[in-house]
Specification:
By secondary structure, this protein is of the alpha/beta class. Helices cover 38% and strands 17% of the residues. The chain is built from 13 helices and 11 strands. A hairpin with a 5-residue loop joins strand 8 and strand 9. It binds guanosine-5'-monophosphate and manganese (II) ion. Manganese (II) ion (MN) binds next to loops. Keywords: Hydrolase. GO terms for molecular function: 3'(2'),5'-bisphosphate nucleotidase activity.
Length: 329
């Protein structure tokens, strides 16, 4: 068995997938468009190759991506789940984010494909490219290179993840290669109209009201370099907003001129505070989130704090201050 290092030996991964009969695909807890798109896309590809494919997520189905083909098959992994020949984790930077214990993840052969900064390898075979803007972009490029069949449905899943993780081709990891990959997925038949309608033009009224509340309560501190907003559990409950509908809101706070870093603090049902960080030009969000046991990417990261809201806000903004350029203060 190979050691758990980032070896990026994609041909070994291809062989492992080809040799397997039953493959289980996992995505990170509270999956976003990239995690779910890569998972459902790869499931389609492997099923077309004649594999038996099971798909798992420990926090269940994200309703906002319910339009993607294959979503109904998604369920949490349990002790009773059929043991596959290969387990593959997508868009997941460490084992914690998978929501499984080490014992549950262990299997005949384990694989991870990911693009997170500071990835901590936890599988036998690992393909990690932190320069890539999306796991879906890596997945599409590998399928193309390997000559695996990418149907129109699979292409729609993969293009969804590229669209969402690049902020619709805006964020800094978007490159000429990203557009080439997206163009190739369009030639495979990706349904851009479906993505536009379901991902970008189907905001619920509850989410819209939350956005309104967020705009009204957001504060601009440290000379306007940092935007901070809070969402209480009561507000989420009173508006009837689902957890996965909060995606993207922190990015909107960053759109204000002069803001370098946006911070969204959301109180979970458990009382913990889920923190989302986004930066524009220089703050290393991955490092800042890392100070609190979280992680992600340089321009987008998150963590959880076991503190009351006011304290969480205090410690986070205090640490955030040290990341701002001196002349900015
Ligand atoms: P979001 O703010 O949208 O929840 O997450 C932004 C990025 O940070 C995503 O790539 C996500 O995987 C990562 N992330 C969010 N929360 C955590 C966390 O608690 N731990 C780690 N390691 N990564 C996180
Ligand atoms: Mn991703």
């Amino acid at each position: 068995m190979t050691s758990k290092m980032i070896n990026n030996n994609d041909m070994a991964i291809r062989s492992a997938l080809e040799d397997a009969e039953r493959i289980a695909i996992f995505s990170h807890i509270h999956p976003d468009g990239d995690a779910i798109g890569a998972q459902l896309g790869l499931a389609q590809v492997l099923r077309q190759l004649g594999k038996t494919v099971d798909i798992y997520n420990q926090t269940g189905r994200p309703e906002s991506f319910a339009f993607l083909p294959g979503m109904n098959d998604l369920s949490p992994w349990t002790d009773q789940s059929p043991e596959p020949d290969v387990k593959i984790a997508l868009d997941c930077g460490n084992l914690d984010r998978l929501g499984l214990s080490q014992a549950a993840w262990a299997g005949k052969r384990t694989i991870t494909i990911d693009h997170h900064a500071g990835h901590e390898p936890f599988s036998d075979l690992n393909y990690v490219d932190s320069e890539s803007p999306a796991t879906c972009a890596i997945m599409a490029d590998l399928c193309r290179k390997w000559g695996f069949p990418v149907s129109a449905e699979a292409a729609t899943c993969l293009l969804t993840g590229i669209h969402t993780d690049t902020g619709s081709f805006r964020y800094e990891k978007t490159s000429a290669d990203t557009f080439s990959t997206a163009a190739w997925l369009m030639t495979c038949g990706a349904d851009l109209a479906a993505i536009r309608y379901h991902v970008f033009e189907s905001t619920s009224k509850a989410r819209f009201q939350l956005l309104n509340a967020l705009y009204n309560s957001s504060e601009f501190i440290f000379d306007g370099k940092v935007a901070v907003a809070e969402i209480s559990h009561d507000l989420m409950a009173s508006l009837g907003v689902a957890d996965d509908e909060v995606h993207g809101l922190v990015g909107q706070l960053k759109e204000v001129q002069g803001v370098e870093l946006s911070i969204l603090l959301r109180e979970l049902a458990t009382g913990e505070i889920k923190v989302s960080l986004r930066s524009k030009q220089y703050v290393d969000c991955n490092q800042l989130a890392g100070e609190f046991g979280g992680g992600g990417h340089v321009r987008a990261a998150g963590c959880k704090l076991k503190l009351p809201m006011a304290e969480a806000r205090q410690v986070l903004t205090e640490r955030a201050r040290s990341y701002l350029k001196r002349e900015a203060l």
